[in-house]
Design goal:
By secondary structure, the chain is an alpha/beta fold. The chain contains 19 helices and 23 strands. The chain has a 9-stranded mixed beta sheet with strand order 13-12-14-15-23-22-21-18-19, sandwiched between helices. The longest helix is centred in the N-terminal third of the chain and has 20 residues, at about 115-135. The chain is globular and about 75 Å long. It binds glutamine. Glutamine (GLN) binds near residues 352, 380 and 462.
């Protein structure tokens, strides 16, 4: 039977619960336990797929094609595991299921109420992760802050579960903030006390309190929190703001969190082994070199919109022993002809995106990368703009475009499958989740992965238009990755360029700190070469692990070959 750890947050939102949860997952894994993580999001949307990045940041896509909260990305990266549909639950989904059952008459004429019908459904979703993952420990993070009206059914479900399961089979961890008051020169515990009181009023006594703060928390303060919140002093865990999120497991483990959790849950674990993680952090903190990469997007003032891209660049940088400075470039600025924001960059990434705004600027970025031979990585829309740019400026068809952006274009190099001649698959629905891709030997993409077949995650509607493939290939833009049937172009690259590669899928969802994604890894390698830096030696454990493409590295990526 799995053990359940419930993580709630208090005082303020964005307190770092998601990273704390992911870090606890890593710690437990390092003690030899198998771990799965679930996010309970109290909002009424069925999933975040339709929410604006301004509301929600990045939409993270799982292998089975679920559009989820960006915290799932943190979970996957810290756990080095692929999660599925069951790991992401929203109030919208819960109500959809409950109302579906009501319409089918499953409740046999009963009155449907938040308790027990909604709470039963929530408990069912939590236990489904335990059942399906077979994990020793399931971490369940509740989104939002304790006290939010919309979070109450989730807290009530957790209260019930803590009663129903054996005493030592569940644990409650509350993550709070200790604000610093300049006037009195001290960290304040009162908001934490209030937040814990709020949690207790819902019938949940926390076992552990993780206290986020920007300053050191002394023993006196810990004792005070322990006394006022009725938590053992070993359960008061300070978490100082760290320069890198990847330091969090190490900091929490230094406070003895892993052993304490194991003790409370009465589970046998191994001595923790965070050696590889320690090496990762050491390498991250003392890079030998530094490079600057432009990420050209529409939401650059909101970097959470490109969270997985940012993390993937960091992972690849660690491999090459190199700090990656990301220059966030607003694509609309390029559109107006102002290229100054690209001056001095040693690599260009155009990430995914939807809609027309800013696309012309991304095309300018692709043109700049092609002509100046600056390494370029195009992700989904980034591939599409690379194709449009090539068709316009190399093939000379000024009207080349995607039908998403210009429905009446006379040269639709990117279009919906239903618009393409001879393609039998119909419908304009989103292609979501993992699909296989065959890599053409002798290409950069193939060399990066080192295998013939891979599985990668998708989230898009429009596709490379095969009608123009021969023409583009003859001019030097080749399709280096194709669907197994050969009808969908998955990866393109420019032959006469040090590294100009675009993928229709999103490699950023499968990059891991200790196993950077092959395309990001090779891209950063090309950036280092462009910057005139020495190439990394593969002798370092992190570098060696991530260059071992036939082994663990491609575990999450390699397909059937
Ligand atoms: N808007 C494009 C499409 O739907 C690209 C999507 C993306 O970049 N994720 O095909």
């Amino acid at each position: 039977m799995p053990k359940y750890i419930f993580v709630t947050g208090g005082v303020v939102s964005s307190v770092g619960k998601g990273i704390a949860t992911a870090a606890i997952g890593r710690i437990l894994k390092s003690h030899g336990l198998s771990v799965s993580i679930q996010k309970l999001d109290p909002y009424l949307n069925v999933d975040p797929g339709t929410m604006s990045p301004y509301q929600h940041g990045e939409v993270f896509v799982t292998v089975d094609g679920t559009e989820t909260d960006l915290d799932l990305g943190h979970y996957e990266r810290f756990l080095d595991a692929s999660l599925t549909r069951t790991s992401s639950v929203t109030t919208g989904q819960i109500y959809q299921t409950v109302l579906g059952k009501e319409r089918r008459g499953d409740y046999l004429g009963g009155t449907i109420q938040p308790i027990p019908h909604v709470t039963n459904e929530i408990k069912g979703c939590i236990r489904a992760v335990g059942r399906e993952s077979g994990a020793d420990v399931v971490l369940v993070e509740v989104g939002g802050t304790v006290g939010d009206i919309e979070g109450q059914p989730f807290l009530e479900a957790i209260r019930q579960m803590r009663k129903e399961e054996n005493r030592q089979d569940t644990l409650s961890i509350h993550v709070t903030l200790l604000p610093y008051l300049g006037a009195s020169g001290e960290l304040k515990t009162k908001p934490t006390q209030h937040s814990v009181r709020e949690l207790r009023s819902m019938g949940i006594q926390p076992d552990i309190i993780i206290c986020r703060s920007d300053r050191a928390v002394d023993n006196e303060l810990k004792a005070k929190i322990s006394l006022f919140c009725d938590v053992d002093s070993r359960g008061v865990i300070p978490l100082l703001t760290m320069p890198s999120i990847y330091e969090v497991p190490l900091v929490l483990e230094e406070e003895g969190l892993g052993d304490y959790i194991l003790e409370l849950l009465n589970v046998e674990g191994t001595e923790h082994d965070l050696q590889d993680w320690r090496e990762l952090v050491a390498r991250l903190k003392r890079p030998a070199n530094e490079i600057t990469v432009a990420v050209v997007g529409k939401y650059v003032e909101l970097q959470d919109a490109y969270l997985s891209v940012k993390e993937s660049l960091i992972h690849a940088g660690v491999h090459h022993d190199c700090a990656v400075n990301i220059r966030w470039v607003q694509s609309e600025r390029l559109e107006k002809g102002d290229l100054s924001s690209l001056a001095g960059v040693q690599g260009i990434v155009v990430p995914g995106g939807f809609g027309e705004r800013g696309v012309e600027g991304k095309i300018v970025a692709a043109q700049n990368a092609r002509m100046e031979k600056i390494p370029y990585l195009g992700l989904c829309l980034g591939l599409q703009v690379m194709v449009i740019e090539f068709a316009r400026n190399v093939l000379g068809n000024a009207d080349a475009n995607s039908t998403e952006l210009a429905p009446d274009t006379s040269y639709p190099v990117i279009s919906l499958l239903s618009e393409q001649e001879g393609v039998t698959q119909k419908g304009a629905t989103m292609r979501l989740g993992c699909y296989p891709c065959h890599l053409e030997p002798g290409t950069r993409a193939h060399a990066a992965y080192g295998v013939d077949n891979v599985d990668e995650r998708h989230r898009h509607r429009y596709e490379f238009n095969n009608a123009y493939r021969d023409e583009l290939e003859a001019a030097g833009m080749i399709a280096s990755g194709l669907s197994p049937e050969g009808d969908l172009v998955e990866v393109c690259e420019i032959v006469d360029h040090p590294f100009m590669v675009g993928s229709q899928f999103h490699p950023e969802f499968q990059s891991r700190p200790l196993r950077p994604h092959p395309l990001f890894r090779e891209f950063i390698g090309a950036v280092c070469a462009y910057a005139g830096l020495d190439q990394v030696s593969d002798s370092h454990p992190v570098a060696a692990a991530s260059s071992d493409v036939t082994g663990d590295v491609t575990g999450a990526i390699a397909g059937g070959s």
